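job 3f2a | input accepted
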Amino acid sequence: MKDRTFAAIDIGSNAVRLLIKRTDDDEQEDKLKKLLLLRVPLRLGFDVFAKGKVSDKKAENLLRLMKAYRQLMKIYSVDEMRACATSAMRDAENGKELIEEIEDKTGIKIEIIAGEEEAQIVYNNHVEYHGDCDGNYLYVDVGGGSTEINFLTDGELKKSMSFNIGTVRILTDKVNQEEWKRLHDELQNLIETYKDIVIIGSGGNINKLYKLAKLKNEEKNSFSVDELSRIYHVLKPLSVKQRMKMFDLKPDRADVIIPASEIFLNVASITGAKEIVVPVIGVADGIIDGLYESWKKCES
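job 3f2a | predicted structure (300 res):
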């Protein structure tokens, strides 16, 4: 089977990522080799959740970034790509206008995907990367604008949920209290039937918190909710600059890491989860997995 190169662009509320992977005959079956991962913190959500639209300056920067990503995809001879925008672009008044301009000037077609599809993407990614499917797992992907939650029992997807609760929304005070109540009620309904739930965390913040824990479980890539709570209470009283200095955090991580912790701790409190598994994966990986699976079907 001829090698194939895939690319994914994930336009989130905090950062915009480009991931490029290629099939590799030297790797195990159904494995892709990562060639490039770039993350640029455009922070579109700070505009959208405060003002309802992407500002002219950030719109221009997004266009410039897409032009740069297009050139990188040419350099890496990408065969297939998909670009997806999530919560911030869903809410932006000028979102449709902006993606039309980007397609016209770069040839990159951006899909604004619903929260349910975003949840399905991260679930598909879970199936590939998390080998042990026995038990009850709550897959929680915390983004800048939304939190996507998938519930799996013994490897079977039972429920997908999307909430307009994200790190940037919290920082801009744009989370409706009714949305917090909906999150609580949906999870409360789950635990009436299912017990012993383990959280699988996704997103840059939970990966950083896991690294800060310095208690890596190499076998399971997990840490306890108690440990997350400990780290949160160390970081919370500090200023953004203090977090950057003391824990070597980037500016665009030092502020959002607190609301991200609060979302995970909130979910853990409602469900009674004691452990968080942290595979190093994200939406972009799920996008590429989808492209790869479609290609395999066409080739077979």
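job 3f2a | The chain has a mean pLDDT of 89.
job 3f2a | closed
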